[in-house]
Amino acid sequence: MTITTKFTETFGVEHPVVQGGMQWVGRAELVAAVANAGALGFITALTQPTPADLAKEIAKCRELTDKPFGVNLTILPTINPPPYDEYRQVIVDSGIKIVETAGSNPAPHLPMFHENGIKVLHKCTSVRHAVKAQNLGVDGISIDGFECAGHPGEDDIPGLVLIPAASAKIEIPMIASGGFADGRGLVAALALGADGINMGSRFMCTVESAIHQNVKEAIVAGTELDTELIFRPLRNTARVASNAVSREVVEILNRGGQFEDVKDLVAGKRGVKVYEVGDLDAGIWSVGTAMGLINDIPTCGELVARIVGEAEEIISERLSGMLEDDEEENVA
Ligand SMILES: Cc1cc2nc3c(=O)[nH]c(=O)nc-3n(C[C@H](O)[C@H](O)[C@H](O)COP(=O)(O)O)c2cc1C
């Protein structure tokens, strides 16, 4: 028995489970392990310092798996944007067939991806943006609720409302993101109208995720209360681990500080140190409220098998066991 959905059929993956793009974390080893587990992983393009490095990372991933995997292209509204066109060209030239876009409007990238037979899964945090992306012609939506790690947007609508609200308007395959970590979540997402789940925090805390063991152990020890929302007053909210740095950033901005005042605290080169040397207070690092549901560090293979197995059991036993035969009642 396997769970088959519009998402698994359209994107050609075995299980309706996705590992979304993760800055500094979404590298070849993790993505290949996710692919080998029958789920869909995304290499994070901008984690690679140059487009040439992305080409190498894709080649490395190919050596580790012969299953499909994709690349995440996070489109950031920055003053000095990375060379998106060159990253995009590498994605095309490397023969990648699935791209996860996120951050802002994927329109400038769609024609080239589609001309080259690449399916685009666009991640967004509101029903209006999901509808807009559907109208632009993307191939799938990943709707990211307030629970998520990274950028939850400014609407603060959790998945319980966001997923069914989006599902009412989205006809293309749609997966649910934010706060998912186990089989119960997968069944809930399917019940709410999604065709699968996308997870960041949960995949970050696996054997193959190439980050320091201290970070994984902190996630296991952490609870759903241990995140902060930084950049709220700047309307560029990010959910990150609660630590000395993120709490300081929140305090400075709440006092009326501007980005300039926290720029050094939130610098990427500080954040990456957390993952490399395991100093949990070295900088900002992303994790979501799903931390409260993460209690171990499995391999990706164990994790995906567990999630799918648990989901199948819930559907076929727990839920179907709740259905009573009305006719028998009438007879009695
Ligand atoms: C460490 C980390 C880094 C992330 N970086 C990115 C990123 O660069 N681009 C992106 O689209 N999403 C990024 N995300 C968001 C994830 O792809 C995913 O949408 C999110 O983690 C889902 O919420 P969850 O953590 O509750 O599963 C990141 C998440 C984490 C945990």
From TrEMBL:
The keyword Heme does not apply. Coiled coil: none annotated. PANTHER family: 2-NITROPROPANE DIOXYGENASE, 2-NITROPROPANE DIOXYGENASE-LIKE PROTEIN. Gene3D superfamilies: Aldolase class I. This is Nitronate monooxygenase. The keyword Oxidoreductase applies. Keywords: Flavoprotein, FMN, Monooxygenase, Oxidoreductase. GO terms for molecular function: nitronate monooxygenase activity. Transmembrane segments: none annotated.
